């Protein structure tokens, strides 16, 4: 699991040429799209919201669906599977792209999890090398409360979930394993099942936080013992240019836009293909996030019918998350911080089984079993409640952060089914 933003070494910086002496197209395209002056020509970049940019380069991907909507689709804030727009690159077999399948409002929940909860201890993050974070504190709250620490979030680059990947030995450390977040596990299992991997078991993840101007050099992800399982990548916040190539560096990579809510699955041959993120592109005005992450007073009411520009034109009444009314949000917004319990977001709304498992913020190092069975995301008002605990002013701080950051969540199965890191 070598994925990490530019301040973490990747093998891209060590290769001026391909090992066979051929042209290193991965590096060439990375430098091309990273260039600031003159800016690159983006006319060849695939935009999955604009069919004119990908004709003859992609094909529709057939999902594993029975043709009818299942309640489980909305369990994790997803639209009905049969409504997903899914494509596969012809040049890279197994590279699957899902155009933002999230219900309107669900991205607020997942981004808040990434910002406020996932950096909590005992999860490992890049800031550990410079400070000791109290288990009762969060990087986000420290940044909000203390002027001395107001740039902590700007310094946060990665957080590991589940099995910890050690960049010093470039491998997983079996003794460093913490419970994988149950809601994220359920989400990625559901996605994996839809693309043909019903037995997928999420065991390790890395949450990358890219600032504007950030990047990740070309590399492959090949450290898991069983590479037959897909890598699932979720993107939130600012837009990225993503490069996906082939098994060697002399295969010219394809460039594509990845926007907030988009999902990438790297399976089959693409699982070990070279890929990179040369550029983060600002969306919206200064201090404004993408439209899909802005506060809306009627966000969770059933009468929302307006469309957001970066919701790919799929928002309708049936895709609005039910469970809260304008009145509910107005009343809750009047609560001050002392009237709310400051606990991890999922702990507030998970069922008792999950709450007990998270009370110590994941200190129990036993492998998580039945990882998707305790999540109560299927309750109609689950996502609504996650936002009800915030005032407009508090969400505004999230908006400012998301106006300058791309969050990327990469999830993978580490070992063969029935094995552990130490036994594989």
TrEMBL record:
Fe cation binds at residues 219, 221, 275. GO terms for molecular function: broad specificity oxidative DNA demethylase activity; ferrous iron binding; oxidative RNA demethylase activity. Residues 133-283 form the Alpha-ketoglutarate-dependent dioxygenase AlkB-like domain. Pfam families: 2OG-FeII_Oxy_2. Its cofactor is Fe(2+). GO terms for cellular component: cytoplasm; nucleus. The keyword Nucleotide-binding does not apply. The keyword Metal-binding applies. Binds 1 Fe(2+) ion per subunit. PANTHER family: ALKYLATED DNA REPAIR PROTEIN ALKB-RELATED, NUCLEIC ACID DIOXYGENASE ALKBH1. This is Alpha-ketoglutarate-dependent dioxygenase AlkB-like domain-containing protein. InterPro entries: Alkb (IPR004574), AlkB-like (IPR027450), AlkB-like_sf (IPR037151). It comes from the Eukaryota. Gene3D superfamilies: Alpha-ketoglutarate-dependent dioxygenase AlkB-like. SUPFAM superfamilies: Clavaminate synthase-like. Keywords: Dioxygenase, Iron, Metal-binding, Oxidoreductase. Residues 1-21 are annotated as: Disordered. GO terms for biological process: oxidative RNA demethylation. Signal peptide: none annotated.
């Amino acid at each position: 699991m070598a994925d990490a933003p530019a301040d973490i070494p990747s093998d891209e910086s060590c290769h001026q040429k391909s090992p066979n002496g051929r042209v290193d197209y991965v590096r060439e395209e990375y430098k091309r799209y990273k260039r600031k002056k003159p800016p690159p020509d983006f006319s060849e970049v695939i935009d999955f919201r604009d069919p004119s940019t990908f004709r003859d380069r992609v094909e529709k991907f057939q999902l594993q669906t029975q043709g009818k909507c299942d309640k489980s689709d909305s369990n994790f804030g997803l639209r009905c599977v049969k409504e997903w727009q899914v494509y596969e690159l012809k040049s890279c077999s197994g590279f699957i792209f899902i155009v933002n399948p999230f219900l309107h409002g669900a991205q607020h929940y997942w981004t808040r999890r990434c910002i406020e909860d996932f950096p909590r201890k005992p999860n490992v993050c890049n800031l550990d090398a410079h400070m000791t974070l109290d288990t009762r504190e969060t990087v986000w709250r420290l940044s909000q409360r203390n002027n001395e620490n107001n740039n902590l979030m700007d310094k946060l680059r990665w957080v590991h979930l589940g099995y910890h990947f050690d960049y010093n030995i470039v491998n997983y450390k079996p003794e460093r394993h913490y419970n994988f977040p149950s809601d994220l596990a359920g989400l990625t299992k559901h996605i994996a099942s839809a693309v043909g991997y019903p037995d997928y078991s999420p065991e390790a993840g890395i949450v990358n936080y890219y600032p504007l101007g950030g990047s990740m050099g070309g590399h492959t992800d090949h450290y898991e013992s069983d590479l037959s399982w897909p890598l699932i990548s979720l993107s939130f916040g600012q837009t990225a240019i993503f490069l996906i190539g082939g098994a060697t560096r002399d295969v010219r990579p394809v460039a594509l836009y990845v926007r907030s809510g988009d999902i990438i699955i790297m399976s089959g041959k693409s699982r070990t293909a070279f890929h990179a993120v040369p550029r983060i592109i600002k969306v919206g005005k200064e201090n404004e996030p993408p439209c899909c992450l802005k506060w809306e007073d009627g966000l969770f009411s059933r009468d929302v019918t307006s469309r957001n520009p970066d919701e790919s034109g799929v928002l309708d009444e049936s895709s609005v998350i039910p469970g809260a009314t304008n009145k509910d949000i107005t009343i809750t917004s009047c609560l001050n911080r002392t009237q709310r319990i400051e606990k991890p977001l999922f702990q507030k709304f998970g069922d008792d089984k999950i709450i007990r498992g998270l009370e110590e913020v994941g200190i129990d190092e036993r492998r998580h079993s039945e990882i998707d069975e305790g999540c109560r995301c299927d309750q109609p008002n689950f996502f609504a409640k996650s936002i009800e605990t915030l005032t407009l002013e508090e969400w505004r701080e999230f908006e400012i952060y998301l106006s300058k950051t791309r969050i990327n969540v990469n999830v993978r199965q580490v070992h063969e089914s029935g094995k552990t890191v130490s036994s594989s």
